Amino acid sequence: MHLLILGGDGYLGWPTAMYFSQRGYEVTVVDNYFRRNSCIELDVGMLYALPSLIERAKIWYEHTGKEIKVVIGDLTDAELMRSLFTGRVEYSWAVDIKFTGIPETVVHYAEQPSAPYSLFNYKYANITIANNLLVTNNLMFAVRDFSRGTHVIKLGTMGEYGTPNIDIEEGWLEVKHKGRKDRFLFPRQASSLYHTTKIMDTDLMWFGVRMWDLCVTDLMQGPVYGIETEESRIDDRLKTIFNYDEIFGTIINRFIVQAVADYPLTVYGSGGQTRGYLNIKDTLQCVLLSEKNPAAKGELRIFNQIMETFSVIELAEMTRRVGRNLGFGVQINHLENPRKEAEEHYYNPTYQGLQDLGVKPHCLTDEVMERMFAVVGRHKDNIRKDVIFRGVKW
Ligand code: USQ
After folding, report:
1. Could you tell me the residue range of the domain that residue 119 belongs to?
2. What is the pLDDT confidence band of residue 133, given thresholds at 50, 70 and 90?
3. Is 150 in the active site?
């Protein structure tokens, strides 16, 4: 089984590559180092330095004897995307790779993933829109033209739904109107430009499914937390990229770093913002089970990829409790919210589909947090307080 991972160097992409490789898949990863380059450009720092993607694949091979093929390139270039399905382009930008056949499954993570980045200024807004929509469109056309049976697993986001005052269904809503009924995509109303590009991705793929019978799974994922996976424990150099800064860090990872660095936890506003969360290990399970149970021809199948919900203040209080038990003097600070978002709202999403496929959630327990504290603590000296909060305003 040949699996192609677009965005294979990122927080989720690299752990996914090792996870599938470990399970016998033939894995090819593609990345243009967008995340690493942006970290340098914005001077946001990372918790620890990383080997290059090519070096990581070599380290993986030395430990496991399993090859992860690496292509370094920009997937907004349609020719590069198409070559991954045809082999018809010289792999001048690739290292040590031969075309190994059409992928049966593509996992699409190759997106600018940060809401603050997308609203940093007009330049980064444009980069977000251009990258996310072009990559998705290039993928859709490559699959249409060369391999309509390829299963596309695309990472969507719970933020596409926003915080509506009704229950959030898994992707679809049956609407009754003037005595008739039909099924539509659940209404979307994002609260950042990044999240808005994810809505547009969904629309593109839904178009491809309707027009050309593509097979697509859309995983509507909440903020992910965690550092380690089973595979990264093999060698410290295989750990995923880990950001704690305001631009690329997500909340739970940020709070633990802040607690370790003795920086008051940055709760935006009252902290009533509620979201669905999941452990990075569960992202891997969800993608694997989606691969093993693919969408049908002509189906856009949507799962809400979260395991539990928390408000920001609940996460801050949990971090404070766990941190204090470990001897850290954790404080909570309510900052004026730099984002335009509801701080008190109804939130009741459905998220049964992936568990019905067999996903076994790793919930956020005190022990899980303690383990994260331990790993972050080992890199305490690298933490830069100046990148934790800059206040990118919406
Ligand atoms: N927040 C704070 N303090 C912080 C950071 C965040 O109070 O220091 C709040 C935010 O205002 C927001 C919530 O925590 O209400 C989550 O923020 P986040 O930065 O952890 O996550 P978000 O910007 O929503 O984006 C992240 C990922 C994105 C993914 C998304 C899933 O960066 O790629 O799509 O989570 S979701 O939020 O469900 O749309």
Report:
1. 2-231+280-307+348-361
2. very high
3. no
